[in-house]
Design brief:
By secondary structure, the protein is mainly beta. The protein has two domains: 104 residues, no CATH class; 233 residues, Beta Barrel (Porin). Helices cover 11% and strands 62% of the residues. β6 and β7 form a beta hairpin.
Length: 372
């Protein structure tokens, strides 16, 4: 009696132990290759002809989907089709196609129709990315710099720059802004820099290569007596290069330029103000818009963006304006980065007594802007 009881206890213990050891395998996914190889673990996703599979004892590996004979899943993956999505628990390759197991029963599909498998969470994120809310999917960087000197010098310099972009499968919105102000209290005039610029552009893809766009660029420069220059228009662009690491777009169109130059004091005047002010200048004219935009990723944490536009005056083609804006940012951890912005604004017909070119360069610690 005692011996039988002991033998039963040992048998029960061994059975429980075997079930415990087998539990991971019972809840694991299984993939069988055409050559007979078998792997157990977790199927992560199917994408671009590769099945990403992770065994418990190794890092994720990419298996050629065409070489997979069958896939059995412990948790269903989502299969997008032209008629909706299917919840799939197994896939088996046969002479007539791929046999997939779904809650409503097995179905035979053309192998060309089974190109993507995702987890329910990944499928939900993908569907949300197709039409993201306007306040989401933004990325960018911002930086602020400040320099002060006191004593024999009394100088203050402030600079700031920001770039941001929101890109979806069908459109892209990008914006930039920069400013620089410098003052030397021991000099006359005391202000040695006071310029601000900014702009935005919206692109909408007509097809994978062609897009239409609308843009607006705005600038002000106190030392050039420019109260405000507005350049607004649109046109057609071409995605000359689009890879995961870099993009290059060229574009052309028409813009309307409107600029206000304030009246200013002449250099050697001493009479009352009413007699020493020059006339204000207002210019409005149509112009061509010829430009390009380039982005390049360096490694996992650095990004360079650059855009340049030329605006020839349609009424006098020998007159033109030119703008260049670029940013280079390098991540310093998850939240901070080092940002350098460069801006160049040129006009071939500045008001009398002012220069034709203005450059803004800012660099300093910045904050990474991202909202998924």
């Amino acid at each position: 009696m005692n011996l039988r009881f002991r033998l039963c206890s040992i048998a029960i213990y061994l059975a429980v132990l075997l079930l415990y050891l087998a539990a991971p395998a019972l809840h694991a996914d299984t993939v069988v290759m055409k050559n007979g190889d078998r792997l157990t673990g977790t199927a992560i996703k199917l994408e671009a002809g590769k099945l990403t599979f992770k065994a418990a004892y190794a890092d994720p590996i990419a298996l050629a989907w065409d070489e997979v004979a069958s896939l059995t899943l412990s948790k269903a993956l989502v299969l997008p089709t032209s008629k909706g999505t299917l919840s799939v628990t197994s896939v088996e390759r046969s002479a007539s196609g791929l046999i997939v197991a779904t809650p409503s029963g097995p179905a035979t599909l053309d192998p060309a129709a089974v190109t993507v498998l995702r987890s329910p969470a990944d499928q939900k994120a993908y569907e949300a990315s197709l039409n993201p809310n306007w306040g989401h999917a933004w990325t960018g960087a911002a930086n602020v710099s400040l320099a002060l000197a006191r004593g024999n010098s009394d100088i203050a310099t402030f600079g700031a720059g920001i770039t941001a972009a929101r890109q979806t499968r069908t459109d892209k919105t990008s914006l930039y802004a920069n400013t620089l102000y410098s003052e030397n209290a021991h000099a006359i005039p005391s202000t040695s820099a006071n310029a601000t610029g900014g702009g935005l552009r919206y692109d909408h893809n007509v097809n994978p290569k062609l897009f239409v766009f609308g843009s607006g660029d705005f600038s002000a420069n106190a030392l050039q007596n420019l109260d405000l220059r507005s350049i607004i228009g649109g046109g057609v662009g071409w995605h000359a290069s689009r890879t995961p690491k870099q993009t290059f777009d060229v574009m052309g169109g028409l813009v309307w330029t409107h600029e206000n130059y304030a009246a200013f004091y002449t250099a050697n005047a001493t009479p009352p103000p009413a007699e020493i002010l020059t006339h204000a200048v207002v210019n409005s004219f149509p112009a061509l818009d010829i430009g390009e935009q380039y982005t390049r990723k360096f490694g996992a944490g650095s990004l360079f963006t650059e855009q340049a536009y030329v605006y020839p005056d349609l009424s006098t083609l020998s007159q033109f304006q030119f703008t260049l804006n670029s940013t280079f940012s390098t991540k310093l951890g998850k939240m901070f980065n080092w940002v350098t912005t460069f801006s160049d604004s040129y006009t071939s017909f500045p008001p009398a007594g002012t220069l034709d070119n203005d450059v803004i360069l800012t660099t300093g610690l910045g904050i990474t802007l991202a909202r998924p």
